[in-house]
Amino acid sequence: xxxxxxxxxxxxxxxxxxxxxxxxxxxxxxxxxxxxxxxxxxxxxxxxxxxxxxxxxxxxxxxxxxxxxxxxxxxxxxxxxxxxxxxxxxxxxxxxxxxxxxxxxxxxxxxxxxxxxxxxxxxxxxxxxxxxxxxxxxxxxxxxxxxxxxxxxxxxxxxxxxxxxxxxxxxxxxxxxxxxxxxxxxxxxxxxxxxxxxxxxxxxxxxxxxxxxxxxxxxxxxxxxxxxxxxxxxxxxxxxxxxxxxxxxxxxxxxxxxxxxxxxxxxxxxxxxxxxxxxxxxxxxxxxxxxxxxxxxxxxxxxxxxxxxxxxxxxxxxxxxxxxxxxxxxxxxxxxxxxxxxxxxxxx
Length: 348
Fold this sequence. Notes:
Layout: E1 2-7, E2 12-16, E3 26-27, E4 39-44, E5 52-63, E6 82-85, E7 97-99, E8 104-113, E9 122-127, H1 128-141, E10 151-155, H2 158-163, E11 172-177, H3 182-186, E12 193-197, E13 200-201, H4 205-212, E14 220-227, E15 230-237, E16 258-259, E17 262-265, H5 269-275, E18 281-286, H6 290-293, E19 301-305, E20 308-309, H7 313-325, E21 330-336, E22 340-346
Parallel strand pairs: 3-8
Antiparallel strand pairs: 1-2, 4-5, 4-7, 5-6, 6-9, 7-8, 8-9, 10-11, 11-12, 12-13, 12-14, 14-15, 16-17, 17-18, 18-19, 19-20, 19-21, 21-22
């Protein structure tokens, strides 16, 4: 198998296996097909016991177990809204399928709640709706495209409801709205209670984050919220960060330096002189994406792709797009300052 892309925020990766007529599993259409009390089966290889199957029921949804919070790099975008089940899983089950009684995959087993390192009654799986979104992004872009509303949320219990004079404990309350964010442009305010996204109820912060994670930047959603007891419905234009809402989809230009998880720039005259090169494109920053999966690191200056000299960022974009379209493996050559020449093979 070959890694196509990874998403540390959800603990998911997309890999590709070369072959034909391989058996496949049927994925459930959405998370709405999973209800509390449903029977499920967990399949995996616990303790190297290949293709073991255990049974249980769905005992919770939208669980946040702080699995990803130890990773400072991914803390900002951590997305946790797990399916909780009492189907026994152990080390070796991670990455295995959680399936319903129709044989459809409803989740990917990923964690257990335990004090011993072994199964103690609770298991957790990544819901299939989130899996579908991440896989589609990794397949298309080599990285995830995640929209951000730009709010800090808090859950509502009886004490919060009483303190804030709320009439209900359903939904999540906005505690803070970031300036120049999707939320601020839409007119949302601190104290507003969000109850639904595209008519689907949200009652916990993990549930809200998981719902938003299903959307890409520049998409629009219908948000139902309450302000001072009055229900309101608005349309929100989602951004990938805080900033100005674009009038239309952005066009790719030479100045657009983001590609496959990497931020590209042109090397300085000093850098080219030190390395003895005349042209090239520098990887200024890199995160989870296609180029990082190939092994490329920050500071790498791309001089040739498949023996073609690289002078512009747009050339890198064009060649990689053609390579992906034709499922062609390409060779990337370049230099690291102080380390010399390096070669990378990038396939699809």
